[in-house]
């Protein structure tokens, strides 16, 4: 990413994610960790015992806000303004690859492009990292925060995955 895009990411409150080194962990170990994590309880169960993973711990580790209100569970298309319906349709059915390509190719030379970059980044970071799903397409759950861009720093990013699963969306 360009320095200007990195500055936007830091301004959004996600600068800590830029300091996470690429993971070079064997797939079998990652699979074992994923299978040992119990979403409903937010615990990692190992042969040494169970470890509770709290949302604020996730927030501190990743440099994200982990307090405050959660974003709405879903977006209701019918309740969106015409402008937001266009944004909704733009991202409907998009994949992580589409987001990656869009995030890297979009310019940030004007305010409108900066706002679109922010939306793409928020969707990307959820799909790739904070709220991955088994479906490789953007869901209504991923879309909710991009319609509240003025409150993006206030949202609780330490718990999106655990709250999502507590609400029975597994």
Task: Describe the 3D structure.
With 170 residues, the chain is mainly α. The protein has one domain. The protein is built from eight helices and three strands, in the order ααβββαααααα. It has a three-stranded antiparallel β-sheet. It is globular. The two termini are 33 Å apart. This is Aminotransferase-like plant mobile domain-containing protein.
Tags for this entry?
three-stranded antiparallel sheet; 8 helices; disordered C terminus; 6% strand; Aminotransferase-like plant mobile domain-containing protein; mainly alpha
Order of adjacent strands in the largest pleated sheet: 1-2-3
Low-confidence stretches: 161-170
* Helix content estimate: 40-55%
Distance between the termini: 33 Å
Q: What's the arrangement of secondary structure elements?
A:
Elements: H1 3-12, H2 27-36, E1 37-38, E2 43-46, E3 49-52, H3 55-62, H4 82-91, H5 96-105, H6 111-130, H7 140-143, H8 160-166
Antiparallel strand pairs: 1-2, 2-3
Helix pairs in contact: 1-6, 5-6
Protein name: Aminotransferase-like plant mobile domain-containing protein
Task: Write a compact overview of the structure shown.
The protein has 170 residues and is mainly alpha-helical.
């Amino acid at each position: 990413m360009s320095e200007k895009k990195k500055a936007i990411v830091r301004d959004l409150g996600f600068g800590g994610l830029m300091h996470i080194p690429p993971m070079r962990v064997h797939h079998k170990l990652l699979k074992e960790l994923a299978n040992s994590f119990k979403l409903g309880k937010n615990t990692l169960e190992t042969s040494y015992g169970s470890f509770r993973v709290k949302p604020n711990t996730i927030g501190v580790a990743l440099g994200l806000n982990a307090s405050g209100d959660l974003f709405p569970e879903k977006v209701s298309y019918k309740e969106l303004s015409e402008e937001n319906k266009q944004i909704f349709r733009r991202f409907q059915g998009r994949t992580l690859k589409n987001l990656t390509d869009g995030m890297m190719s979009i310019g940030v030379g004007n305010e409108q492009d900066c706002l679109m970059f922010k939306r793409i980044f928020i969707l990307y970071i959820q799909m790739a990292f904070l709220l991955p799903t088994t479906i490789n397409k953007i869901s209504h759950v991923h879309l909710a925060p991009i319609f509240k861009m003025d409150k993006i720093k206030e949202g609780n990013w330490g718990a999106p995955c655990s709250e999502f699963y507590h609400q029975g969306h597994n």
